[in-house]
Design goal:
alpha/beta; 41% helix
């Protein structure tokens, strides 16, 4: 990346950076930073941006979009457990990821266009849509082959060097975001894509401090009872959403109640979880509805910030399907999100 972009990131903040308004409903977007999987053009983003009600009224959907990748087009790994374990991502892979996020005709630019198109039917959105970008995990396995930052060759055996790499990534994203001059997007913060944190505690803490200096959020979505989930603020995270891990596993439905209890006890948000299995299999459709039922019984939709895991593009498939069952699921999801957005709940 050009040095002038880095200097811009370090020395200036612009109107495209977020205010203190928090995200209420954040959907996870995979594929925006690679050529594999979903092609995120403005049409694909449409059902994430607005919902057309039965009364033919368009209402605004998600106010937050989390862009993240676990591996790249060449199977280099951005986090443990994904991609080729023998190919930890290097600086060039991190830089290519940024390039793809900001490439004209895809990803962030297409989301911005989708929102602009929606203004013709829905009017102006109540606020800019907030963007969170996943930070690749600095994998120790890359050792001293990652690349340079701050004028030195980094060695990830040194925890401070991991922090330097992450700061480089943050600065580049901030600079590119400022230069892009999006009409409807604001950079809200960053996300730690590693679901466990034990090996990177000092790096995470330093990143949290760094981001808070720019009034940017630091997000985490830990798996069920992941070490550190009971006090994520002590680790450096500003916003944490707990995964119930019910949809994917053979665990009793009581897991959803346990997740609600834990979220209340520790002041966490929660994650809605589903994937393409809801398109084909009744047991997963039941699980999909149980999230809404149990969360509703626990007043989650009125009190908690939420993220929405949809595998790659399940929401798009539900919306575009002609199957009445799929339409019902998309309607239930959309009416839940738009209600929260219209009422401004939870109060943050």
């Amino acid at each position: 990346m050009k040095n002038k972009l880095k200097a811009s990131a370090q020395n200036a903040q612009t109107s495209t950076l977020a205010t203190n308004n928090k995200i209420r409903d954040m959907v996870l977007i995979y594929g925006g930073g690679t050529e594999k999987g979903q092609d995120w053009d403005f049409y694909s983003f449409h059902p994430y941006v607005v919902y057309k009600t039965d009364q033919q009224v368009y209402e605004w959907m998600f106010d937050g979009f989390l862009f993240l990748e676990l591996s790249d087009d060449w199977n280099y790994s951005f986090t443990l457990g994904h991609g080729d374990p023998n190919k930890p991502a290097q600086k060039a892979n991190w830089a290519t990821l940024i390039d793809k996020y900001f490439e004209t005709g895809r990803s962030l630019h297409e989301l911005d266009q989708a929102i602009d198109d929606a203004t013709w039917s829905a009017g102006q959105p109540p606020s800019k849509r907030k963007i969170v970008i996943g930070i690749p995990e600095p994998l120790t396995a890359v050792a001293n082959n990652w690349g340079m930052a701050e004028g030195i060759w980094l060695n990830f055996q040194n925890p401070s060097h991991k922090t330097m790499a992450c700061k480089w990534f943050i600065d580049e994203v901030r600079a590119r975001f400022s230069s892009a001059a999006f009409r409807h997007l604001t950079l809200d913060g960053f996300y730690w894509i590693g679901e466990s944190v034990e090996d990177n505690a000092s790096t995470i803490s330093a990143i949290g401090t760094y981001l808070s200096g720019y009034n940017l959020s630091f997000n985490w979505i830990p798996w069920w009872q992941s070490p550190g989930y009971t006090n994520p603020g002590a680790l450096g995270f500003s916003d944490t959403y707990l995964q119930p891990n019910y949809f994917f596993y053979n665990v009793p439905v009581s897991r959803l109640q346990d997740a609600c209890n834990a979220a209340n006890t520790y002041g966490l948000g929660l994650e809605m979880e589903f994937d393409d299995n809801v398109l084909y299999f009744d047991p997963y459709r039941t699980k999909f509805n149980q999230y809404f039922d149990v969360f509703g019984q626990n007043n989650v939709f009125d009190t908690k910030k939420l993220t929405y895991y949809q595998s790659e593009n399940t929401i798009l498939k539900l919306w575009s399907s002609t199957d009445p069952l799929h339409k019902v699921m998309y309607k239930r999801l959309s009416e839940t999100v738009t209600r929260r957005q219209k009422l401004g709940i939870p109060t943050l």
